[in-house]
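Hi R.,

Here's the chain you asked about this morning:
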Amino acid sequence: MAKSKKSRSTQGSIDSRGIGGQYRARIRINGATLTQTFQTCVQARAWLDDICAKHRRPDRRQRAVAAASLTLGEALEKRLDHITENKNHRNEGYAVRRILRDFPDLTGRPIYDVDEIDIKEFIEARSVQVAAATVNRDLCILSHTFNLARSQFECTHLRNPIGPTTRLRVPSGRVRRLSLEEEVALLAQAAIYELTSTVPIGPIIRFACDTAMRCGEIAGLRWERVDLDRGTVYLPDTKNGDARSVPLWLEVRALLRDLGPKQEGPVWGAYEAIRSAWRRVKAAAVVAAEARGNKKLANSLSDLRFHDLRHEGTSRLIERTGWENSKIQAVTGHKTAAMLARYTHLRSADLASQMASLEGGGASLRVIRDQGITLDQDVPDSLQKRAAWRAVSQSKELLSALVSARPVSKIAVEFGVSDVAVHKACSRLEVEKPVRGFWLRTENAAAEAA
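And the predicted structure, written out as tokens:
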């Protein structure tokens, strides 16, 4: 019996089973072994060559040429295919299409040619259209595109022209409180609107103020996720991607019971229907305020946004409970404690109940006691001062009495805060302070009289 002959190469191997026998071709591709038997060696070699051609990667030079011709716009579109699992994939798609539409000169250039000057021109042009926060979000998309092109699109040695100092400075977070006058005006117009609409916008406004839920979360709420016995609603899909349960106040449970609890289905309605109802009700409230000659109310209502109701709900939650940030985050869904920093000045409701008498507090303590604030004796001195200041800094009457009785520097020492904090509180509450040098002149006059 003739021995089997085998020929090997970098493109597989061919086994011959003797004279007049068959030829078996074998090749290993990506860890898997492929085999095929042929009548002639030529057929076996042709099959191996075809397999290798299909699985052959372009050489380094070809890949470099392809990457060099990649434009920024093409890289942005390829990036969308890599982030399909992201929560904000849809919104980022809108942002990418907007950049492609408004900046064709930038996105049509090869990605290797985009430098810091191009990014600066983009920032200047975009800043005319939108706020700084939106510009920064667009810069994040562009920056991630450059990093992804270097790591995934084989754009070797690509430099990212967007650095940490490129982004714009964003103003401090908006905190907009809903005044009682504004709430009454909105609910009055909501009652009129509901006569001809199926959207219960009045209860929705009250629900938003008492739960701190986002508009999208309210629109997506379903009856099967409402537990009125336990007093919670479950939100499986939120903006930041984390599910959470929101506890309900007794008045919110009563509000939902009045709607007639159902076994399933949406509680409120579609997102766009809620947004449309909100815009119509707010516009009607502005018109009604202007008709009464109340320009101040009309202007404040014009500045109001639906998302401000979430801020109001968060503020009320802090004031009514006095919980620490971790508990507030669990209810409101804020991602980090830093996002709650804007609400730190609202914790007077919890701390005021723990205030203790300040020994030697002088006029400051007497002013607080005269207002009937209950004080607790078992509180550290530092906490007493902070609690006292938070109570005073929320009351125009208390602060007015203080600044008219003693200098700002002495008030700051007594409450353990800075002079700047006192000045800011006066500005926020519109408290008039004595003119500069008043207390010095008063002390000099008293010294001369003595």
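DSSP finds 22 helices and seven strands in the chain.

Let me know if you need anything else.
M.
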